[in-house]
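== Sequence entry ==
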Amino acid sequence: LSPAAPFRIVNIGNSDKVRLLDFVEAIEESLGRRAIRNLLPMQVGDVPATWADAGLLQRLTGYRPQTDIRDGIARFVAWYRDYSGK
């Protein structure tokens, strides 16, 4: 990271690995409806696993995100429904 940069961009994920289908299931649970799934083979550019590295956030601020994916999605859906009036 350049010390001359006037800002820092940091990842605020909690660093837990989450399978895509677990993510989809958490959204389904929060919305109370099933997604239409069209499962395809891995596509060019797909990665088998990905997760947030919040190490920089913790080093800069001392904060370590701890919200699990299901709770975070449920809270986001509740917020969005309130925000959008739906």
